[in-house]
Amino acid sequence: MESTVEQYVPSDYLPIIIQFAAALGFVIFALVATHLLGPKRKSEVKGAAWESGIESVGDARTPISYKYFMTAILFVLFDVEIIFMYPWAVNFREFGVDGFLQMFVFMGMLLAGFFYVIKKGILKWE
């Protein structure tokens, strides 16, 4: 039996290189054009820091409770873990008992992490 293996030549990559060059060229063109054509007026009001149209008050270095950050990280963590359940639910029948047991272990680990977070009191606000 003779095996045929496709050989790629450099010209096969030409469309990819052209598309990459076009994208890079557009980015460079857009940056240069906006720099050259944009307004150059500088003033104290334009240079001031604004957040959503509200003038900044106070120091940006004020201490913030770590619980805000922990809540955000936990939300992202559990949200990403939930995303893994959708493909499993779509292909539930194809995975059979093995897939069910694997998801059972996954859910067990997810719940163990959740109970650990609750036990540590990270979600308790004072």
Automatic annotation (TrEMBL):
A Pfam family: Oxidored_q4
Question: Its Enzyme Commission number?
Answer: 7.1.1.-
Q: Which EC class heads this enzyme's classification?
A: translocase
Q: Which UniProt keywords apply?
A: Cell membrane, Membrane, NAD, Quinone, Translocase, Transmembrane, Transmembrane helix, Transport
Where the protein is mainly located, per its record? membrane
Is the keyword Membrane assigned to this protein? Answer: yes
Q: Which reaction does it catalyse?
A: a quinone + NADH + 5 H(+)(in) = a quinol + NAD(+) + 4 H(+)(out)
Q: Where can this protein be found?
A: Cell membrane; Membrane
Mark the transmembrane ranges. 16-37, 68-88, 100-118
Q: How does it sit in the membrane?
A: Multi-pass membrane protein
Assembly notes: NDH-1 is composed of 14 different subunits. Subunits NuoA, H, J, K, L, M, N constitute the membrane sector of the complex.
Question: What is this protein's function per UniProt?
Answer: NDH-1 shuttles electrons from NADH, via FMN and iron-sulfur (Fe-S) centers, to quinones in the respiratory chain. The immediate electron acceptor for the enzyme in this species is believed to be a menaquinone. Couples the redox reaction to proton translocation (for every two electrons transferred, four hydrogen ions are translocated across the cytoplasmic membrane), and thus conserves the redox energy in a proton gradient.
Belongs to which family? Answer: Belongs to the complex I subunit 3 family.
Q: What is this protein called?
A: NADH-quinone oxidoreductase subunit A
**What is the species of this protein?**
Pontibacter locisalis
Whichever gene encodes this chain, its name is nuoA
